[in-house]
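call fold(seq) -> tokens
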Amino acid sequence: MKKRIAFASLCLIFVMIMAMPVFAQKSTFGNTPAKAIFIAMDSMDEHWLKLTRGASQQAAKLKIDFNNSAPAGKVDAAQQIAIVEDAITARYDIILLAALNAEALVPVVNKAKAAGIKVILVDSPIGAAGQYDAFIRTDNAAAARQAADELAKAIGGRGKVAIVNAQAGAGTTMIRENEFKARMQAQYPNIQIVGTQYSDGDVAKAMNITQDFMRAHPDLKGIYACNEGSTVGVGQAVKQANQSGKIIVVGWDKSARCVPLIMDGTILGVMVQNPAAMGSKGIQAGVDLLNGKALKNKDEDSGCTFGTRKNIASL
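ret:
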């Protein structure tokens, strides 16, 4: 009888614990809820909007205050630095940062770390001298090599290919460009890369660059685009020139603007990341660190899949 009473008491205690409300994570800077901010490269690309939603939802689940900010465009690292400075002054507990320029952001990231803020890099790296707590990202090098393989296969392993990148200084997009080039050089000697131009992720600029490439190289066989805005601009230019299926396009990121161009055959496929997971995992990592919990992986791959007409709806 006593055993049954003891067991019942334990069960009651367990139920009471499970029913207890989840209290807000407290700030390291005072007896207030912890604060997190996501600082993106811009506020336009669907990729960043998905990452923001993932971070915001996880922050709400963990009951911490969440904010997000970004430069007006992808060309002003100084503006992003100023946003990080403001976050330090506002005593945020967690900063999620997608660095617009790998080297330029190092000093202010180190300043944030010195101020006791948990710095979680998402999507894009900073320079080797940078200090941070965790990095949640796509394996951009592996994905770029896969993009090269897919494009090379589609054009039969020979011909001229152009590259339309986003920012010349962003760590992520430079990895995507350089690994693509290295793969082509190492594995496909009959493919010639005729040039690389930078669109800053702007659709209109990417369209103009693509038109210039097509005029300069009437025998162009393929174009590789390194981010969502560049991919959309390349696709729109190829479609307007009635070159869909003749010039093979491989790009990056699933978006409402990309999917129709994939479905009509203008874009062969895109490397589909998991930005919502980056945001969610980034917030979780920051809160775990605030609670003194060691992270299993300081550098975590959030996954990437080649999305084509056959599978894009499921990604």
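The radius of gyration is 23 Å.
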